[in-house]
Amino acid sequence: MNYYIDPLTLVTFFPVIGIVVLLFLRADQKVHARWVALITSLITFGISLAILAQFNPANPDLQMVVNIPWIQVAGWNISYFMGVDGLSILLILLTTLLTSLSILSTWTAVQDRVKEFMIFFLFLEMGMLGVFLAQDLFLFYVFWEFTLVPMYMLIGIWGGKRRIYAAIKFFLYTMAGSILMLLAILWLGIYQDTFNVPELAAMGGIPPNLQFWLFLAFGAAFAIKVPMWPLHSWLPDAHVEAPTAGSVILAGVLLKMGTYGFLRFNLQLFPIASVKLAPWVAALAVIGILYGAAVSYAQKDVKKLVAYSSVSHLGFVMLGLFALNSQGVQGGILQMINHGISTGALFLIVGMLYERRHTRDMDAFGGLWKVMPIYGALTLIVVLSSMGLPGLNGFVGEFAILLGSWGAGLPGGVLGSPWFTALAALGIILAAVYLLYMFQKLFLGPVTKEENRVLSDINWREILTLAPLIILIFWIGLYPNPFLNLMSASVDQLLNAMQTAAVAGIP
Amino acid sequence: MSLNDLLVNLNLIMPITILTAWACVLLLVDLFIPKERKGITALLAALGLLVALALVISRAGVATSAFNGMIMIDGFATFMSVIFLFSGLAGIAVAYDYLIRSGIERGEYYVLLLFSIVGMMLMAAAADLIMVFLALELLSIPLYVLAGIAVPRPDSEEAALKYFLLGAFASGFFLYGTALVYGATGSTALTEIVSATTSGGVNLSFLVIGAGLILVGLGFKVAVVPFHMWTPDVYQGAPSSVTAFMAVGAKAAGFAALLRIFVLAFPPLAMDLTPVLWALAAFTMIIGNVIAIAQRNIKRMLAYSSIAHAGYIMMALVPYGQGNVAADTVASALFYLLAYMLTSFAAWAVVIALEHNMGEGRDTDGLSLEDYSGLGQKQPALAAAMTVAMLSFIGIPPTLGFVGKFYLLRTVIEGGFPGLALIGLLTSLVSAYYYLRVVVYMYMRDGEPVVRREPWLYFTALATAVGVVVLSIFSEPLFNWASQAVLKLI
Fold first, then answer.
1. What's the pLDDT at A387?
2. Residue among B376, B391, B414 whose CB faces A190 most closely
3. How close does chain B come to A309, measured CA to CA in Å?
4. Do residue B440 and residue A190 have CB atoms under 8 angstroms apart?
5. How far apart are CA B487 and CA B323, in angstroms?
6. Are B443 and A75 inside 8 Å of each other by CB?
7. Top-ranked range on mean pLDDT: pick from A2-6, A200-204, B80-84
8. Which of A70, A113, A142 is opposite residue B398, by nearest beta carbon?
9. Nearest to A157 among B432, B433, B444 (CB)
10. What is the 3-state secondary structure (H, E, C) of chain B?
11. Contact B398/A146, CB-based, under 8 Å?
12. B373: phi > 0 → left, psi -120 to 50 → alpha, else beta; which?
């Protein structure tokens, strides 16, 4: 008898242990509930670090694979199949880290129904980890759809004034995309006779015109999640109404499920369609970059500004992925992490301010630097990172993406025009405009409102919440190689496989 | 038929025999049970169901026919019998306290329930249209009475009368269809209908019209659009415990008959019938789900939801005529019926726990969505059970409703109807809106829900909800079992 539990199952389902403990707490044991959740998420983070230690970056294939037959009757071929590779390892770490930090950030912000909050939060972590690890389409869909439920609850119960509207919109919008993906998954399951992703990718042989439809069906689900322009309208509502911790996870991890989906499923399973549709996806991505930036600039609500900036930043990720070359895809993956760090930190920062003043209106602030110097300094770092200042993390990702898209835009590349790069670069400038505008409004100048004079600077817990993210901002910015090394083997293998398939498939 | 033959045949259908005898005996025994201790009758009825269940399971895997081929005992009948018997047990569990509270506790309630289950079990095993008709009546008549058992409450009386009139009407359709089929093929036995059809020389238009009328008759029972008009009023007016049982049992029995008749006797007519079934399924899903959005009364909402789910199951029937898909048609419909049964009882148990102010000559209360406000905080267990039920109805994993829908959709796509699958999925999206509204009230609004704390209700709600989640994760045995329940001519 082998009592060894494989690490991927352990990391995915460890939060359930915390949930079980939480169920035994009374509703008024708020502090206990917080500690249970925090410790659970920290242990989960620890397990993910152990997975990183075991992970071999030189191996491009799935590692630590667990593949157990699940439903193998009546013509079904479904397995409990999990694995991690260079495409997903960083997202696992991002998920577990941000979950811990988010829980830490709720220490004083969430006072109402703490126990339930933590239960839903840990369920959410389980779902997200499952999405990134599942290598069987059925299993993937189960996790994918399941994440909706806890997020819906988080927004709907602990959100702002229009929380119910935002929660239902979030749920229905996302589910609408998932439905099309489910059809495509069923099609693959019936006609390719397996739900096993690597097998499906290796099998190939889907006719190009069908690949086109399947790409769109999967793409609909992922594009809504990313969200790509013009399918983004659920995002500002969900973000603005969600509690701080919910926004952090929503922006930091849930949106990545969309971009990751494109990377893992669309590129691998439908290579011909991916190559053919790359310019269209890139066009939408660039529109998203510019549109998100422009709308951000128009916002009065800080949280809404950050929310729209996600549309812009995720546009970069999509542009990088669909450059379909090594720099672009690596930059795209790194930018997913960067966005999780920077925007996650921005939402935390907005949350800290909101907790003190119960408003997010930019006009209500001004000159905060004088009142809260530590807070101001940390915010400045995060803002600079988000707008891509060299030496900080945002720059590395965005530069690689622009480089990749330039290469893909040259004759013979998939994008066919360097204009994508030029317009995307404009997006970087716009990012500087709206982010610095926000920073100036909040922090610089004289203190305009009397009630702001008495605000307390951030405390140790809040510094502790931000510190890991600040460290990562500098680390990735100054020395990104360890991060890129983790993914490069898998990315190269993916691109080689795509090239072979596309060359074979396009007459 | 000699006495010996009779005994042999009765032995072949032992679970049904026992249950019938038990129900008759119970009717007499009940006379000697004092009025304030009718719980004993409930217990005895449940005991009878458990014995029958044990017999059904112990005989699983046997495939045989009885009474000159009028009855077929096979994997299909076994699977359905288990569903009916479980519905009966859950039906008693949710009824016991409810009847006392409503002041309508009578021993006959449980006896009628048993007779209805006998009818359902016969329906699933019937291999002859005459037998189907008898079973249909046997299951329906006790339900007509049960719907009106809250007399003199006007809405209960109205429900009973409406159900009876439309049910009788539907029976007429069924019988006329049977007559036409008999006229065309010279037989009412399913095996002979199909052999007569394939050997040629039958009047095809009579046969198709006959099949269509049979579809109408059973369509009333399972409540597919446009034969659904009675459902909301009857579901709302009947006592909730009856509604819960009816929504599962009667619907499952109707589908059992539809599946057996269509898959066994009418595959040669698939060309004509498939478009009809397609339209029925599509309209049922669309209309059921869209009208449910407008409902504020939870019983009415669940009534429309049950109509919509009839549409989902109907989807599986559309490709029934394709030899390679027919097995999946049956298996996926059975699987979904099982999922629907568990999910429904989870939901209805919660509804019954919240219903109050009954039997005082005024309208029932605790049934509007507002009455669910704050349930998530005051009664977390019940709210969780209801949430699981709602998610399962939508088809969100990890619930049995999701796995069941997945299976149904696979059947439909395999049969070559991706458009219908898309309609099924889009209507699920619509349904998410009104199912989630219940969750919104329970968790996102404050209130003081009035809840009846009664162990059997809690047990039913929680056990079925846990079953919905756990069985969805360990669903392989269920898949296996459902896929063995193929319909074959013996």
1. 87
2. B414
3. 29
4. no
5. 12
6. no
7. B80-84
8. A142
9. B444
10. CCHHHHHHHHHHCHHHHHHHHHHHHHHHHHHHCCHHHCHHHHHHHHHHHHHHHHHHHHCCCCCEEECCCCEEECHHHHHHHHHHHHHHHHHHHHHHHHHHHHCCCCHHHHHHHHHHHHHHHHHHHECEHHHHHHHHHHHHHHHHHHHCCCCCCHHHHHHHHHHHHHHHHHHHHHHHHHHHHHHHHCCCEHHHHHHHHHCCCCCHHHHHHHHHHHHHHHHHHHCCCCCCCHHHHHHHHCCHHHHHHHHHHHHHHHHHHHHHHHHHHCHHHHHHHHHHHHHHHHHHHHHHHHHHHCCCEHHHHHHHHHHHHHHHHHHHHCCCCCHHHHHHHHHHHHHHHHHHHHHHHHHHHHHHHHCECCCCCCCCECCEHHHHCCHHHHCHHHHHHHHHHHHHHHCCCCCHHHHHHHHHHHHHHHCCCHHHHHHHHHHHHHHHHHHHHHHHHHHHCCCCCCCCCCHHHHHHHHHHHHHHHHHHHCCHHHHHHHHHCCCCCC
11. yes
12. beta
pLDDT of residue B361: 46
* B-chain residues near A145 (CB < 8 A): 396-397, 402
pLDDT in tens, A315-337: 999 999 998 888 899 999 999 99
Nearest to B432 among A70, A71, A175 (CB): A175
- The full set of domain ranges for chain A reads 271-507
pLDDT tens digits along B388-440: 999 999 999 889 999 999 999 999 998 889 899 999 999 999 999 999 999 99
Answer whether residue B490 shows pLDDT above 60: no
Residues on chain A touching B426 (C-beta within 8 angstroms): 179
Residue B347: CB atoms within 10 A of its CB come to: 28
